[in-house]
């Protein structure tokens, strides 16, 4: 089996994939844990091992580990966990070193591993052109052209980051459930906040996707992914697709492609 790990600023997401036979590419199980920059390799191994016990999968069945990480402090812990407890050297996805989705930005090395993993997953599953919107700590927009090349990105503060920052700086505001209000014109503080947050982010997404389509010169499909996609995506028709596992799938497809390349060498 292959263990795919998406290490993000808010959560670490894990996915177990079958690698061989007719079931190759099947996602057996996925789970997530809150990101903690102080986690050790032993801590991560305990998180993985405990979940694998719950689903009755042996640690020995994992023979490859692939990782997309935007959290540099976890590099050592992820490497240590892989080598000590799974007996393999992990592969860290890098936008500059992969070839499945060629990167045409000015500095490919600056592109986050989660962004390129999401693009690989989207192109592998749905084709190109495509616009990938990831809702997480940041809300990111990735443009893949008709020829399958990664053309560029827009990055905005994420929903929770924006809400937390607003509430910390405005003493009279309160935390409210992040649900769509009955109307855009709020009649009290909770509904006013819900309007600005939910409908405001819907407007942001619709406007940026429209600009991306105009600049791509084609009505590219848009796919929503990320842990916070369910807050915004249901309230707009801009998305033809919603796929929470897109980054994990991208890691799997990258791992499968590198395995094929090695077998041919």
Describe the structure.
This protein has 265 residues and is α/β, with parallel strands linked by helices. 38% of the residues lie in helices and 22% in strands. Helix 1 packs across helix 2 (75-86) and helix 3 (113-126) crosses helix 7.
Cα(first) to Cα(last) distance is 22 Å
**Structural category:** alpha/beta
Q: How would you describe the shape?
A: globular
How many distinct domains? Answer: 2
CATH class of the largest domain: Alpha Beta
Strand order in the largest sheet: 3-2-1-4-5
Radius of gyration: 19 Å
* Main β sheet profile: 5 strands, mixed
Strand percentage lies at 15-25%
Query: CATH topology of the largest domain, what is it called?
Result: Nucleotidyltransferase, domain 5
Helical region count?
Answer: 7
Known CATH architecture of the largest domain = 2-Layer Sandwich
What is the share of helical residues?
25-40%
The total beta strand count reads 10
Runs in which pLDDT lies below 50 for 5 or more consecutive residues are none
The name of the CATH superfamily of the largest domain reads ATPase, nucleotide binding domain
